[in-house]
Fold each of these.
Amino acid sequence: MDAELTRQVQELLAAPRPWTVTQVGEPVLRRPAARYDGQLPDDLLAELLDAMRAHLPGVGVGLAAPQVGVPLALAVIEDPAEVPEEIALARERPPQPFLELVNPVVTAVGDERRSFYEGCLSVDGLTAVVARWHRVQLAAADRSGRGYELELTGWPARIAQHETDHLNGTLYLDRAELRSLSTTAVYATHWAAPTPGPSAAELGFPI
């Protein structure tokens, strides 16, 4: 057990909800997270993962522990994919059931990439196009330490890559086509198409 991390998580769980998500510029987002190896009591780990999941509805589709200031290799993902059918088809975005990612590792399957706009709870108010692997193998464990492997495609693969990037100190901005960078308001006005083709043509970036 790690007494300092235990205290930190207890304070986080006692804080008002919804949490204020750590924003870009905070050092915790740029440091590789520590591999989870029993630093927290089992019941506290379970409470943390449940609270991270509870933070998602209406806010995002994934959350990594560093985004709430906890420097451990933990994340959760869940995506109800409540988007128009045209967008769901273009982005290959089926509903993604809840997953706990403890010490996750993502490995590309094949060499195909897809480019889409992406945002982040830790980069408030901005969005940009990111090329990500189209298909990946996810290896992780759940709160009980049971390992699992899944092959993910399309948007679920993107979510898994985004969250595991957080655990390596990487933000989507590091991988983005910077000419595509937009405020979320401008994106909603001009570029909210199923694919980034129109914005690529107008703003001058490759996809």
Note: The chain is about 30% helix and 30% strand.
Amino acid sequence: MGPHPAVAAIRLAVRRVLHDVLNQHCTQDRRDPPLVLVACSGGADSMALASALTFEAPRLGVRAGGITVDHGLQEGSDLRAAEVALRLRALRLDPVEAVTIRVGRDGGPEAAARDARYAALDAAAERHGAAAVLLGHTRDDQAETVLLGLARGSGTRSLSGMAATTGRDGRYRRPFLELDRQTARKACLMQSLPVWDDPHNADPAYTRSRLRHEGLPALEKALGKGVVEALARTAQLSRDDADALDAWAADAERTVLDDAGTLDVAALFALPAAVRRRVLRRAAIGAGSPAGSLFARHIEEVDRLITAWRGQGAINLPGRVGVRRQGGRLVIRQG
């Protein structure tokens, strides 16, 4: 008799990712078996992921390890991290590491914690020479990300949610993006895996928590079941569109940019708005404006120098980047 359907589903999802990691490893002409780490908080999603990695990795000749991050935001969080590390070792993962981080304040508590967490995971991957780090984001997380992007009004790329593969050289992999949260929880139950429910996930002080416990249930009540699946599908369609527009913008940039780094206003005006704004964003980032601080309203203001020119003065962007129209050229400079 085979495993429970939930257990089979999480294992299949991880198996597919490990095959991809192995293929990439082989193309690099590496002889040693690749190391794959699972980032584990001790919650149902990441514990299910750790169990699936434990099962599949030896069958494919992959080394499997784990890392848990202590954000230091709750009393006793160090003990919790140590306990999660013990659980990972009990699954026979090796190496296993518990890392303590300091969370800053930039961008709000959720963004600051995320930035610090990824910095720690990057450092751990480098330290251990890991080929990939698995993350336990599910289809439910994807739906929440799409809704948050919609609320920010920040465009197609924001609506595309999380990609299955991100990071330098495709370091981060999200095997569960097509599985719902309930499947992961059921897989833990069927394997008698202990899980920890982070109280922050139920704290209404956090935007994502309110969305998870109030917003999405309200949408499902109003629109019926299937909202999560529809939002996840929207993410994939938006990602395909955004990828195509980004490629178009990269090609268009070469036709509007001169050797001095200024942009041809007439050529920009002739581009479709979605492409033109991407070119402007790329140029602003290239001049030194931080991508995380550059919002749609900034780009719209720059766009008006092209589409609604009334002799406006220079526009100041984050990162001390200035934009001004000079004759038929757009000049974007840091200073």
Note: The domain at 5-139+160-205 is CATH 3.40.50.620 (Rossmann fold).
Amino acid sequence: MARILITGSSDGLGLLTAKRLLANGHSVVLHARSAQRAQDASAACPNAESIVTGDLSSIANTIAFAEDVNKLGQFDCVVHNAGLYLGPFRKTADSIPAVAAVNTIAPYILTCLLKRPTRFVFVSSEMHYSGDGGLRDVVWQQRGEVGWDSTQAYCDSKLHNVMFAKAFARRWPDVQANSLDPGWVPTKMGGPSAIGSLDAAVETYVMLAEGRENGENGRYFGPGRKESSPKSVADDVEAQERLLRICEGISGVKIPV
């Protein structure tokens, strides 16, 4: 059985996936943003191996979170599930919006710094099709709070997640790295009007976490384990490398060979 870390797993799809994986006999480590959310996750998922806290909106805290996770030993899979959706700019200590910090910079840092697992899963969204493939102002440093558009920022970050999966799959052929769109589902993020199936979303999470996707690496899946074609720029190697360079420059974290 596998040992799996799921970021952003104190509630929502992360928690539901953790419960399903535990029921399948796997060992799961949860992640929560704060001590209070960790207590909530522990109560909701008492069979989890452990819970690690860390605020992924801060570069320094994300690096510290990676160090804490590495102390726990090797994982078979890391699921990059933590994410923010719509809202105000919420400038972080690093002077970038929280959406960009959590959705783009944090998964980059963790992928680089965690002891390399067999599998990475990057959670994207169908909204990535509206992401800026030109990678202009990735973390809104030029546009700033005055030019803030939360929907565009979210779409951009979800495109970055697909590109990360493809870039790391290409760079590390011994690692399985794929991305998924869970669909519009009725979680706290999706809201009560969402029409997607939670079960179909969790099926895809579990398939990728367990490594049952079969076939080529760097793929993109939708709900119900169905493979889809992402925005074409996601396959552009030059664009992938540019995104990695941008994230390195912002975070100061280099990609290990």
Note: The CA atoms of residues 9 and 15 lie 5 Å apart.
